[in-house]
Amino acid sequence: MASVPSLSASLEQRVTSALTAAVPSAEGVDPLLRRSDRADFQANGVLGLAKRAKANPKELAAQVLAALPTDELIAAVEVSGPGFLNLTVADAAITANLARRLDDDRLGVPSAPDPGITVIDYAQPNVAKEMHVGHLRSSVIGDALAKILRFTGESVVARHHIGDWGTNFGMLVQYLVEHPHELDHAPDTGGTGGAADGEASMSRLNRLYKASRTVFDADEDFKERARRRVVDLQAGDKETLALWQRLVDESKIYFYSVYDKLDIEIRDEDIVGESGYNDMLVETCKLLEDSGVAVRSNGALCVFFDDIKGKDGEPVPLIVQKADGGFGYPATDLSAVRDRTGNLHATTLLYVVDARQALHFRMVFETARRAGWLTEEVVVKHVPFGTVLGKDGRPFKTRDGESVRLEDLLDEAVSRATAVVREKGEKIGLTDEEITANGEQVGIGAVKYADLSTSLGRDYVFDLDRMVSLNGDTSVYIQYAYARSRSILRKAAAGQQPVAHPELALAPAERALGLHLDAFGDALAEVAVSYEPHRLASYLFQLASLYTTFYEQCPVLTAEEGPAVVDNRLFLVELTARTLQRGLGLLGIRTPERL
To answer: Which residue, among 133, 128, 115, 268, has the nearest Cα to 193 in the 3D structure?
Structure first.
């Protein structure tokens, strides 16, 4: 089925045509159409146009009003203030548009007219290290953006730039050489890839790291052997690479168990860590130096910027290659840009990384532009996120000052959510299995929603009591609205069906709900351009709130106005349920059928 233009898009088209008819030189003028408390929509573009045309705003507004077509879309128009147009949409137009949405698997949401290839860099754990709360936001935000962009028709390539290279690996590999059974699995382990296997893998890796660090700090001979092992690793020595791969593979067992708990799919082919760009580093540096983009300074290969200086006023360079010949993050990130634009043919590059890395990416992007690896045809954006805070307003830590393990945080969320689900669920006859499953979906959803409902760059307080509350701006509130809608649909009698009746007048709560339902595609289009998933979260919370008002003010199954009203309200309930489910799904949040 073809996409369904939103009512606001159809109105905007009509007002634009009327503006052009009133002032022919105004072709393409923005009517500045907005939702309004005075009517359904308000068009504010007349004021700016009147100023350009040196016309009286009220008189021009009257001309625009006269030029508006009289059709089934617009029920009423009035001029207010200095020249605002207040527009009311016909009830029949609202219902008819929603009916077209319900008939479409995509709810009438259009695909992007000219989709490209977006590479999203997110979910960046480190090999042989435990994942902590700091890994949460990149994973959740990146996964939501990937889902939303794919839904709009974009070709999305995920890239998980894991930390799998560096001097620490010399120490770890050398210890494995001398203690070859340190990562051996117990013979009775199931190897299912679940949480137990993940915990066991992390336990082995932690034991290996602590043991190797102890020897490294105490034994100078071992320290020297570890340093030589780094050279072997960088040179591609076969034995060293094989042991390094064991570390990576063991870490993946752990990564996958955590992401499985977080309900995020991480595919093996999308994991391209720092090591994936090793073969490009020398060439990247040569290209930068030969082109004059980078210059040698005190032995290091540097890129300088006129507008980036330190507190002392001295230039702060991007160091691509250190004086000792080693490579840092800039060389790897620049090589990744080359790969993503040259080999993957990306039209958009997104980096879902901590806001504190803003200067680094600014310098990398500018360097890549100077080198010609980022052209004007490629959109590149750092998608920043703030810090997860504790209730004390400081970065979320354990009582000992350590970073909170991501698994512990998720387990606690599920535990709290399960208690909330059990209290409600036992009253409606949920089984223990249903309570457990719903507790997981509600708990993980609560953590994700708290993250995704926060605007990019802002910090937020991790407060599980608030996150799993049935009241307020939480995923539980939205999930409960969905479960309530499914309950109504299950209770409908055989003769009661979700059927649209455009001939019926709509109650105020029905109108408000219908107009918001119609804006789902507009909300997604906004996120696809701004890369701000909190806009979708906000849309869904408002939808759940409007649905709650509708539920309270407009009896569905017991409507006294007759069977047509019952069917029409069931139709609104069905579309609300599908929109909530689709929207939460795009945020990576599941929707239990019963709560």
So the answer is: 268
